[in-house]
Amino acid sequence: MAAKPKLYYFHGRGRMESIRWLLAAAGVEFEEEFLETREQYEKLQKDGCLLFGQVPLVEVDGMMLTQTRFNFYGKDLKERVRIDMYVDGTLDLMAMIMLAPFQRPEEKQETLASILQKAKTRYFPVFEKILKDHGEDFLVGNKFSWADIQMLEAILMVEELNASVLSDFPLLKAFKTRVSNIPTIKKFLQPGSQRKPPPDAHYVDLVSNILQF
Ligand SMILES: N[C@@H](CCC(=O)N[C@@H](CS)C(=O)NCC(=O)O)C(=O)O
């Protein structure tokens, strides 16, 4: 049996969390090595594991993968293009939320308010309309895909900023319930899974120290 994929990242969400979501949704078990020191990060670099000198790093069957994306990936090119567009859109939204904790406290509140506004006016209306227009259960091809996994991750991140953010988006609300109840996802959402909590001050300090910014 092939060894479990091994994930190298900080003990927090960041850019690894979407990969954790994807593996969890696929029912793939994985191991994690958490970066706690600058030395661990430098060793990965010295050993040539980090193509662009960056984490996330995923080790699968002896291959060292960065820029990591896995497949839940549509039946043809047209579906894949749509999945890519939706994934990249939600990733832009999530990246803003991901980076906010690294800002100075006086900027942070303003940034979070602006992210929330963008979620409500730029991103969620698009996905609400997609669901309304095709009337299907999932975003692409009436089949559970990477776009759905990441949409749910994004919804939950935005709800951490404002719990009632979906009140004007009934189809997204129903989508959230539907996807959350897929058995592998349901398991990942339960306490004790490898899902990580929102970043706290300790996480922010740790990442800033290891990456030296
Ligand atoms: N496009 C890359 C971006 C990776 C990235 O920005 N990683 C950050 C940590 S979350 C990093 O390693 N920064 C160190 C650096 O760029 O020197 C991906 O998604 O994997």
TrEMBL record:
Question: Which EC class is this protein assigned?
Answer: transferase
Kindly give the PROSITE patterns that the UniProt entry links to this protein: GST_CTER, GST_NTER
Q: Name one GO molecular function term.
A: glutathione transferase activity
EC code(s) of this entry: 2.5.1.18
Report which reactions are catalysed by this protein: RX + glutathione = an S-substituted glutathione + a halide anion + H(+)
The GST N-terminal domain, residue ranges: 3-95
UniProt protein name: Glutathione S-transferase
Give the species: Aotus nancymaae
